[in-house]
Specification:
This protein is an alpha+beta fold and 379 residues long. It is built from ten helices and eight strands. The structure holds coenzyme a persulfide.
Length: 379
């Protein structure tokens, strides 16, 4: 088990208190209405919640990656929908972290520290897993770019102030023609399309973005023209462990609720039945192993070593664990599981295996790395 230092313990405790006060009491209600609620932002503003992901030189708290994962786990424990809203803002910041210049970082991070939301606009109707085949375009016109296209399944799409949008500056070059742009919500031609109705994480907002002749200054280009695909991949390397952390939180919550239920059902009998005991033990093993996998990826990230593979492993393993553990909790609790909030954890878990790169895509990333390494070793 990762040994936490006193600062990390205190930060985790503060995150637990934030979640207990602001997230857990509202989670069922927001899940039922299926709408993003500004209440979360008011609470986030008070706690300067995104400052943890902003480097100190830009006015943030610059937490190390393990510490950020501890906080994200608590958000997932409270409500994966609200956790997704918060994590998606950090995802958009990651693109600026990867490729932004000093001025862009100052401009992007300042409102985020005050809990404005951001969104990451990569996916398109015809470009999901095959992220390089997007059709959105950005054409240079003097000191501006003119962006056209449609983005879909964008978390925080309708509730953000600012977006990172990926579009082709040279469509004939395929994924080498992609570029990344900061796009502010109030630009003429920018609008919101269909809002998605979801199985889980229902308190988060997910929608289409429509860009029609949206003009942004050339100074909104992140990195250089043609670097967009790499920026997107590096962003996702940074961001996928956040999904792993939400997943660990979800799995831990389902396990805790299941154990509480067992204690009520079999009062004074911790041995509830050996089959049940073994199942609880397996759930605990899975949650602990998932947390360790996540922390390993975070330690790799902070050590400055390449960590694409560990990022993909953590996202895949932790989300698969969340799905398995939440589903097992429903099974163990029977009809009570199916009709209580436990069912929400299972619904919320499914998306963890899908967004920020499906687990099939993660397996592709992992296997490519393993095979490349084996090939190099054999050379
Ligand atoms: N970091 C830096 N560069 C990377 C990278 C990474 N993690 N992964 C790939 N690249 C680079 C490659 O080095 C290659 O560069 P060169 O052309 O200079 O050699 C380029 O990007 C293309 O890489 P690759 O050939 O691997 O691209 P593919 O199209 O075969 O596959 C996958 C890329 C499938 C991995 C990518 O499209 C992907 O991650 N898809 C999922 C998208 C996703 O997660 N969407 C969710 C959005 S948020 S909900």
């Amino acid at each position: 088990m990762t040994i936490l230092n006193p600062d990390q313990q205190a930060i985790r405790q503060a995150a637990k208190e934030f979640v207990a006060k602001h997230i857990i009491p509202r989670a069922a209600e927001f899940d039922k209405t299926g709408e993003f609620h500004p209440y979360l932002l008011e609470a986030a503003k008070e706690s300067k919640i995104f400052a943890m992901a902003v480097p100190k030189e830009y006015g943030g708290l610059g937490y190390d990656s393990v510490t950020q994962a501890l906080v994200l786990e608590e958000w997932g424990y409270g409500c994966a929908g609200m956790g997704t809203t918060l994590a998606a803002s950090i995802l958009s910041m990651d693109s600026v972290l990867v490729a932004g210049n000093d001025e862009q970082k100052r401009r992007y991070f300042a409102p985020m520290i005050n809990a404005e939301l951001g969104a990451f606009g990569l996916t398109e109707p015809g470009a999901g897993s095959d992220a390089g085949s997007g059709k959105s375009t950005a054409v240079r016109d003097g000191d501006e770019y003119v962006i056209n296209g449609t983005k879909c399944w964008i978390t925080n799409g309708a509730v953000s102030k600012v977006y990172v949008i990926y579009a082709m500056t040279e469509p004939t070059k395929g994924l080498r023609g992609y570029s990344a742009f900061i796009v502010e919500r109030d630009r003429p031609g920018f609008s919101i399309g269909t809002i998605d109705h979801k199985l889980g994480i229902r308190s988060s907002n997910t929608c289409e973005l429509l860009l029609k002749d949206v003009r942004v200054p050339a100074s909104n280009l992140l990195g250089k023209e043609g670097e967009g695909f790499k920026i997107a991949m590096m962003t996702l390397d940074l961001a996928r462990p956040a999904i792993a952390a939400l997943s660990v939180g979800l799995a831990q919550r389902a396990l805790d609720e299941c154990v509480k239920h067992m204690q009520k059902r079999f009062p004074g009998k911790p041995q509830a039945g050996q089959t049940l005991q073994f199942k609880i033990a397996d759930m605990q093993i899975q949650v602990e192993a998932a947390r360790e996998t996540l922390h390993h990826a975070m330690l790799m990230r902070d050590s400055g070593q390449p960590f694409s593979t560990e990022s993909a492993i953590s996202k895949t393993f932790c989300s698969d664990v969340a799905m398995a553990v939440t589903s097992q909790a429903v099974t163990l609790m029977g009809s009570h599981g199916y009709t209580s909030e436990i069912g929400k954890y299972m619904r919320d878990s499914k998306i963890m295996q899908i967004y920020e790169g499906t687990n099939q895509i993660q397996r592709l990333v992992i296997s490519r790395a393993v095979l490349t390494q084996a090939m190099k070793a054999g050379e």
